[in-house]
Every structure is written in structure tokens, then in C-alpha cells.
Amino acid sequence: MIYVAILGYGVVGSGIWQVLAQNRTYIERKASQPIEVKRVLDTRKFPGNPVEKVLTSDYADILKDKDIQIIAEAIGGLEPAYSYVKQALLANKHVCTSNKELVIKHGAELLALAKERGLNFMFEASVGGGIPIVRPMNLSLTTDEVIGVAGILNGTTNYILTQMSMVNKNFEEALAEAQERGYAEKNPTADVEGYDSCRKLAILLSLAIGRQVNYEAIHTEGITALTQEDFAFATHFGYVIKLMADGRITSMGIEALTVPMLIHSSHPLSMVADVFNGVLVQARMTDSVMFFGRGAGKLPTASAVVSDIVDISKHLDQHIEHIWSTESAMLLPLSSYRRQKMIRVSFNDRERAMSLIQEYMEPASIVEISEYSGQLAWLSQCEPENKTIEKLARLAESKVFIGEPRILRIFEPTKSDE
Ligand code: HSE
């Protein structure tokens, strides 16, 4: 028998309880022994709920319980999660977590501590909800050099963008609906500003290169400024808009950004809709591998945590190595990233605007949409950011354009010769 404790009986914690109870027989067969929740830490009471019998509000009850070998952290946020996880490892207990803030900030350090003590620290659910992605990155894609990790890593924003593009909702309406359905939190900042997606990208890139990618150094833009015009012009060019986490490992260094991007409608990632996530991993020999599934939600996320519990139960005396050191990995400056872009401008003189764009920007084609008169959009050359900014600055000197140009980058998979 393996005894487990769950920290936090919120959405994920109660999901872990439910998965372990509902799939008890199945999990017992996979783990070769029964898995039992001995304690659940929460300060709240849950009258009438079966969890009541094992509830405690005192973490010491769990730490000093010699029967408990595995702790599943589902509190979220940095504190007290970080202190609790550290104390658990120091008390010789294995840990698994769904907490991406904790993993990206302290993952390398907690892995080192787990290794030192012959324990395991696992975090499958921290990226991609129910999608197995951390374990494949750590165990399957180990023979090859990863050159690209990109994808849709946030379910909430993907739901909002799907609503905006498919049913013409504006951002506020789509967000309100996401909140009603329980996808978006009351304070949706971490999702809609791209911070959640950025942290997940940093975890995947850190696993790919074995060093610490600082998520705060990743250029991040949210989806709050997207408008119906952006979707209309993108559709006109054959693209959809997604909040993309785009990581590349090139011979020059590492590129990482989390921004709304255009994806061509023929690319499989363009079809990842609603709360689903999709991750594209590219490696030199393996080529492209794609992962797809529910990126958020109680039971998919809890299932990923329980997969760690089962894995740990089979490796109680063996640390499973993750190559992820605390050494920092430097990111290349954004100004050097080569991406094609869709650029949209408003003008006060159509003919001059057309001729200036042709002269300075070398666009493949310029389009107008009758519904949005007074605006032009074009696809830029595939060029570094600083080059585009320089060209746009020259364009702005003409005084023919009104306001700031709207720039949306276009996603292209990494090329193996980059
Ligand atoms: N808020 C996250 C999302 C939850 O919407 O993807 C899963 O990390």
C-alpha cells in the first residue's frame, strides 16, 4: 500500500482525490499496489464530503506521518507551496505538483534536492494540463537535439480566441463567457496577459536545454488588445490568431516569445480550438512531434498529477533524473528574431499610403477589406524585428498614417538549418 497526502482541496486537489477514488482498481493494477489518500491539507471544512475524515489544517500531521511517502501539492502559487514542498523533501517524502509558478521558479533547485536525497520531484501537470509532455520531453525525446518547442499552452485564452474568431464575440464578451464556464479565473490577468503561457514555455525550454530559462526575460504580450479587425485581416490572408508560446534553439542561441501570432490555417496547430492545448516539439532526427489535449480542467490536470503518483510508486527507491540545472540560459534579444509579420495601418491618403508601403516595406501583397475602410494590411518580409521597426519608423515620417501600426507576428516551425 502506498499512502499519499494531497495539499489543497481546490479544483486540482479534489480532482486528484476523485481520480484516485474513481479509478482505484485500474490505478492499483498500474502501480502494482493500492494507493490510498491518508491526509488532505486544507484550512476549510467540507461537511458531508468523504474527504472530511482525512482533513487536517496542520501540515505537521503530514510531515511527521511515516506512512505517507508521496505528497501531491495542489495549493498553487509560490508560498506556502515552495516551503511545504521543500519541507516534504527534507522529511524524505516524494513530491509531485501541478504548480507551474513553483516549477519554473524553483524546479531546478527542488530537483537537485530530490536527487541528493534519492527522492522524486515530478511536475507533469504543470504544462499542458492532461497532455503528457513533461515525461516525453524528459524520457522519450532524449536522443536528439531539440530545436523548437512551440504551441498553444493556455486553455483559457484559446477558448476566448476561438469565441472571438468563430462567433465574432469581442474580447470582453468572450472573457465573460470563459469565466461563466469556469475556465477563466475571476482575476484573469495571468492567462490573458500571457504570463501563464510564458511560464510553461520556460519550463519546456529549460527541459529541452537542461538549463534555467528565466521566464521574466521572455517577451510576452497578452490577447487583450486583439480586435475583430485583426481576425478579419488574418482570415483574409489565410491565417488564424492564437496565443503562441514560441521557443527556438538555434546555433546563435535561444529565442523565446509568448505573443498572439498568426498560424496558417493549413498547420495542425491552427485547428487547436476551445480549451485544448497543442505543443509542437521539433528535433533534428525525430523531426516534428505534436501533442494535443485538454490543457486545463479539473480531471485532465488531476490525471496528470496521478500519473506522477503512479510513476513515483514504481520508483520509490530510485531518483528519476531530469537534466535541468540552476545554471542560467541566456536568451537572444528580441530585436534579432526573424519572423514574418502581418502589419495593419490606418491612413489619411490611400494612394500615398499604398506607394509608401510598396517602396519601404516590400510587401508580398497589400489588402483592403471593404468593412474596414481606411485601413491596409500586408505581410512583411521574414526579417529581424529591428529591421521591421526601422522600416516602419521611415514610413511614419510621411504623416500619411494615423496612429500606431498593428504588428502581429506569423508563426513558422523552426527550420533545421537555423
Ligand atoms: N489557467 C490555465 C489555462 C490552467 O487556462 O491553461 C492550466 O494551467
Number of continuous helical runs: 14
CATH topology of the largest domain: Dihydrodipicolinate Reductase, domain 2
- Share of helix, binned: 25-40%
Rg is 24 Å
Q: Going by CATH, what is the homologous superfamily of the largest domain?
A: Dihydrodipicolinate Reductase, domain 2
Q: Quickly give the structural class.
A: alpha/beta
How big a fraction of the residues is strand?
A: 25-35%
Q: What's the rounded overall pLDDT mean?
A: 95
- Give the bound compounds: L-homoserine
Please state the overall shape, judged from the principal axes of the Cα atoms. Answer: elongated
Q: What is the total tally of β strands?
A: 20
CATH arch. level architecture of the largest domain:
2-Layer Sandwich
Straight-line N-to-C gap: 51 Å
CATH class of the largest domain: Alpha Beta
